[in-house]
Amino acid sequence: MSFAENNELKKDLHSILVAYFSVSGNTYRLAESIQREAGGDTFRIRTEQAYPQKYEQLVARARDEIRSGYFPVLQASPTHLEGYYAVFVGSPNWWGTIAPPVAAFLATHDFSGKVIVPFCTHGGSGGEQIKEDIMKLCPEATVMSLLEVYGPDASKETTRKTVAEWLRNTGMTR
Fold first, then answer.
1. Sequence-separated (6 or more) residues with CB below 8 Å from residue 94
2. Is the separation of the CB atoms in 103 and 71 below 8 Å?
3. How many CA within 13 A on the CB side of residue 25?
4. What is the pTM of this model?
């Protein structure tokens, strides 16, 4: 069932949050495109300790955090998360899964009864285990189909069309 096929869900299309984590800007650009098409509010997931800008250091830290199951401390939480029915959750694909800040965001909030609409950017490996890992962190939420976009394509016109089609297919259009 798509989001819009259920009338109760359809009335809540205005209560959308687009939450994302981005280091290079690719996931941010994809989040912007989604927010333009679907509406709602945006929330940038930020950590208290910034990630390194040097690629090798970033990759090493991400790998270590994922392997150890570490959840970094986040700077803030969205206000009134309970007021959102649908939460788009965006992450770069790091080592086949969501980035640890996104995992921390999902693990520290109650998403019971909410619709989670995941999206990711990647360097060529696709979404891998992202949807499944979100489902493990939020077992009481409905997790929709994952949008996967090659990172450098996040701001291209073809991606905007892909976003619009994905939103139509999931029923998440205004």
1. 62, 63, 66, 100
2. yes
3. 4
4. 0.90
Closest CA to 39 of 88, 78, 97, 76: 88
Give the Cα separation of 128 and 112 in Å (integer). Answer: 24
Residues 6+ apart with CB under 8 A from 57: none
Contact present, 74 and 102 (Cβ < 8 Å): no
Instruction: List alpha helices for the chain, DSSP H.
Output: 7-10, 26-38, 55-68, 100-107, 130-137, 157-170
Consecutive sets of 10 residues in the chain, 174 residues long: mean pLDDT of each? 46 78 96 94 96 93 96 94 95 95 97 96 90 97 96 89 93 81
Distance between CA atoms of residues 96 and 166, nearest Å: 21
Q: Give the count of beta carbons closer than 10 Å to the beta carbon of residue 67.
A: 9
For residue 147, the cross-strand partners are 119
> E strands of 39-95, at which residues?
41-44, 86-94
